[in-house]
Amino acid sequence: MREFSELFRDELFNVGAINWRDRQQEHENxxxxxxxxxxxxxxxxxSQALSEVAERKLRNANDEFIxxxxxxxxxxxxxxxxxxxxxxxxxxxxxxxIDFVQNKKELxxxxxxxxxxxxFRLNPKHGEYGKGMKHNKxxxxxxxxxxxxxxxxxxxxxxxxxxxxxKLYYWDEKYKHYIxxxxxxxxxxxxxxxxxxxxxxxPKQIIELISEDTIED
Length: 217
Known about the structure:
Blueprint: H1 4-14, E1 30-36, E2 41-45, H2 49-59, E3 66-68, E4 79-86, E5 94-101, H3 104-114, E6 119-120, E7 135-136, E8 139-140, H4 148-155, E9 159-161, E10 164-172, E11 177-183, E12 190-196, H5 204-216
Parallel strand pairs: 3-5, 6-12
Antiparallel strand pairs: 1-2, 1-4, 4-5, 7-8, 9-10, 10-11, 11-12
């Protein structure tokens, strides 16, 4: 079993996450505080993930952020309350509420709801229901064993490889085959897909991730 931190990084990679410290936006003229409602304490935050999230949410209310707690503290709510106080300008503090999860399952659900939606589009050369495949250089291409709707359900759970972000994989329990999805590199985040006969075509680390993921489900 791999370390949870490694699994976590893979989950973030699959949704295109970046290291916030590479693009820090926290303002030097402001102070940020965590209002811990449980303990009735107010804690100042200095160059921390929480203060960075607060600043980013205040700049763009449509951006979504989540905090995954690595046992740093206990909290019995699903949101954290942060407020920003500008020390140069006389104005009321601005409040921000950050989503909060404590395990991988909750994180996966949040990412699924907040990432850019994946859209499956049938590629005729792979057919449908295992029929209608086209020939490519004298060989029949890999088939899509089920329907487009079934493929869409699998696509929503598919996992990517750090070495190739344009391919996603998952185990199709109904048809007992792995399925691979190819990013068509469109603005609508469209993928086409097909089932794989030989699992040796799939990176070993992806198979491990999928196995762990299906066990949790």
